[in-house]
Amino acid sequence: MTKSCSIALSSCWSGIRTPRSTQGVVRFSQVPSDIRTQFAGADDPETEEASLYQGVVDREAHVQLLDQSLRRWTGRGIMDRIPNSITSRDDDLDSILTSSRYALYSHGVLTPDMIDGAVINFGNFAALSTFGLTWKQFVQIPCCRMAPPGFHQNNLGQTLEQLELAAQTQPEEKSHQVIERYSGLRSALGEEQQTTFRVRDAVIWNVIDNEGKYYGQATFFDREAIEV
Predict the structure, then answer these.
(1) Geometric angle at alpha carbon 169, from 118 and 79, rounded to 5°
(2) Is 176 helix (H, G, I), strand (E, B) or coil?
(3) Residue from 50, 137, 69, 66 nearest 102 by CA
(4) What's the mean pLDDT in 134-161?
(5) What's the pTM?
(6) Which of 14, 25, 67, 179 could make an S-S bridge to 77, C-beta 3.0–4.6 Å?
(7) What pLDDT score was predicted for residue 78?
(8) What stretches of the chain show up as alpha helix (H) in DSSP?
């Protein structure tokens, strides 16, 4: 039997407690400097040397792109999906970077060097904590490996492929560019967090700019809706 997990998956920064604010949103300036350093990409030498991908560089601009795409398809942006959120101004949108409750991550487009599928290129504080990884580790992961091996990875792969196909063949069909109320199994991938959990009421959508260029896909969910 599953039980509700209220931000229960431990932080990938073990032993460090972060400041809290309304709805789990923490301004980047409020986050302790050691966490800011690790979130910015500092890692152990072995991980650094093994890093093939760096993820997005301008994270604030990337979050805005994710938000614009979601708003384009559904009429509701990221902040609109956070209860009691007063505004969706850019400064509040930037705060999703360090949210401890609302997970947001994305993967880019498939390139020839990615033999296991498109790779994660962004994750906010909550996403890194949920999957038990640092930034450098997170942006090396093929998107389908976020799910447990076997059936669940195959199912996630098919879901993402169908969504991408809609971006290529039916770009004007807004309802085909997003999956609302998605539920599926995921795996915490950190060495200290070998946990399988279910995300509920998640949103997965195609990321496209104003010119129609496809950038990959994004996922957003509330960690309080996770079941383990």
Answers:
(1) 60
(2) helix
(3) 66
(4) 91
(5) 0.78
(6) 67
(7) 94
(8) 33-39, 45-50, 59-74, 90-94, 125-131, 135-138, 151-169
Surface-to-core class of residue 40, CB atoms within 10 Å of its CB (0-12 exposed, 13-18 middle, 19+ buried): exposed
The answer to which of 152-156, 188-192, 224-228 has the lowest mean pLDDT is 188-192
> Comparing C-alpha atoms, which of 140, 138, 124 is closest to residue 35?
124
Backbone region of residue 84 per phi and psi (left: phi > 0; alpha: psi in -120 to 50; beta: other values): left
138 in Cβ contact with 127 (< 8 Å): yes
CA angle, residues 144, 145, 148, in degrees to nearest 5: 110
Query: In this predicted model, what pLDDT tens digit does every residue of 57-95 receive, in sequence order?
Result: 999 999 999 999 999 999 999 989 988 754 445 557 778
The closest alpha carbon to 39, from 66, 70, 18, 9, belongs to 18
Kindly tell me the burial class for residue 48, based on how many C-beta atoms sit within 10 Å of its own C-beta (0-12, 13-18, 19 or more).
Answer: exposed
pLDDT at 222: 95
Beta carbons of 84 and 122 less than 8 angstroms apart: no
